[in-house]
Structures are given as C-alpha cells and as structure tokens.
Specification:
With 252 residues, this protein is an alpha/beta fold. It is built from 12 helices and 8 strands. Strands 3-2-1-8-7-6-5-4 form an 8-stranded parallel beta sheet. The longest helix is centred in the last third of the chain and has 19 residues, at 181-199. It starts with a strand and ends with a helix. The structure holds phosphoenolpyruvate (PEP).
Length: 252
C-alpha cells in the first residue's frame, strides 16, 4: 500500500513555547502510526531543529513549509533545499496556494523548487488546487492538470515517485468548507490518471495524493476512506493536538 500521510501545516503560527506545548500534548495522545503511514509536521523554519529533536523518539517527522528555487547565494531571507537537507529534514511543502497567491510563485518557479528539493533528497509535498471561480465554471480538472504538467512533468519516473501531491481546493482552505468526499475522490482519481498517462501506472500507484481544505477530526475518516485519498494536509486543525491526533488515527 502506498504511504498514507497526515501532514500538519502550522503556517506562521505559534511561539516556540506554544509549539513545544502542542507537541507535548500530541505525544500524550494515543497515536497508532503503522509502517505504511507517515506523519509530518511543517513548522516555521526556526522550529525545525528543536521540534525535530523533540520528535526524535517518535515516528513523526518535520517538514519545511517552503524552499528556495535556487541552490545558494545572495538571496536574503530564503532557505534552500540544501540547507533543509543539512538539518536532516527531508520533506518540504512546495506550491501552497498561499505561496502562489501572496508571493506570486508561478509554475516555472515551482518547477525549479521541485528540482532543488529532489537534488537534495527532500521530498516535495506539491500542492495544487483550483479557486472557487474555476470550480463554479466546472474546469477544475484541466486547471489542476496544468499545475501538474507545468511544474512536475519535466521529471523522470524515479523523481516523480519521490513526490507527494496535495490536492487543496482553494475555496476549502481555512474556510471551514470541505470538499465532499466524492468531490475529493473524483479529483484524486483524475490526478492519478494524469500521472499514469505521463509516467505509467506503476508510478501513479506509488504517489501519495493528500487532500487539504478544512480537514477535521469529524470529516477525516470519510475523506481518507476514499480509495485515492491517501491522507491529508491539515492547516487549522493541526494546531489542536486532540484534533490532529484523531486525524492521524483516521489514516487508512
Ligand atoms: C492548508 O493550509 O494547507 C490547509 C489545508 O488549511 P486548513 O486545513 O486550515 O483548511
């Protein structure tokens, strides 16, 4: 079975003390994380080391929320995949809709970020997903397909296998409005078919496709039960230890 993944995206939240408190609480919850399951926590950059140290005896790993599109050099404020890898962090969110919208990251910049990640043994958690107007126009399949083809389809099959895809309809992020499990399954099956058409079905069956958009303890079981939904990328609910533990325990 491909990896079933619960990934927390803390975004720009929590002081260091609050972050420690949240992890302490999470580790006190009854968690069952099986060998085919993976839990990731995307912390703000300064917390990657202390939180990773805190998680050292657990099966939970830290993840970066972003990486630079370039290798190194005069890019004040940026953090490269090489730096992330040197911290022994091997996952990074790339192309979150907030990065696309607020920081104007386009397909070609995201392709460079994916290249940097893969060149430094960092698994991209590559986000895609349509805004409300596209969903209302019914053109979400081609919109998401373009996001995948423009930023991932220059890869070879082995590189594609290192990627995790997160489908996050923008209209469902932080809005409390979740895609129905049917809508999620429909898009995830489409994404898998698009990957299969380019890289072959063996690759498509290997790639975990996460759903993101107001995942909560109360909807995770139904969403994750769908055959092409391999877990979730979780924003708001990951800031609550009890909620996030229940989401972890809802993984297939
Ligand atoms: C996210 O930011 O990736 C996300 C899915 O947020 P939320 O769970 O709060 O909708």
């Amino acid at each position: 079975m491909r990896k079933q993944i619960a990934a927390a995206n803390w975004k720009m939240n929590l002081t260091l003390a609050e972050a420690h408190e949240l992890i302490d609480l999470l580790l006190q919850q009854p968690l069952s994380i099986e060998a085919h399951q993976q839990v990731l926590i995307a912390t703000p950059f300064p917390y990657l080391i202390p939180i990773q140290q805190k998680l050292a005896n657990s099966q939970i790993k830290c993840c970066a929320q972003n990486i630079a599109s370039t290798q190194n050099g005069a890019f004040t404020g940026e953090t490269s995949a090489e730096i992330v890898n040197s911290l022994h962090i091997n996952y990074a969110i790339i192309g979150h809709s907030e990065r696309r919208e607020l920081f104007h990251e386009d397909h070609s910049v995201l392709a460079l970020k994916v290249n940097q990640a893969l060149a430094h043994s960092v698994h991209p958690v590559f986000c895609c997903g349509e805004p409300l107007a596209i969903r209302e126009a019914g053109t979400q399949n081609s919109y998401v397909e373009t996001q995948l083809t423009e930023s991932l389809f220059h890869l070879d099959a082995e590189q594609m296998k290192q990627c995790i895809v997160a489908y996050e309809p923008i209209w469902a992020i932080g809005t409390g409005k979740t895609a129905s499990s049917e809508q999620a399954q429909e898009m995830h099956a489409h994404i898998r078919a698009v990957i299969a058409a380019k890289f072959g079905s063996e690759v498509a069956e290997t790639v975990s496709i996460l759903y993101g958009g107001s995942v909560k303890a109360s909807n995770a079981i139904e969403l994750f039960a769908k055959p092409d939904v391999d877990g979730g990328l979780v924003g708001g609910a990951s800031l609550n230890a009890v909620e996030f533990a229940a989401i972890i325990n809802a993984l297939k």
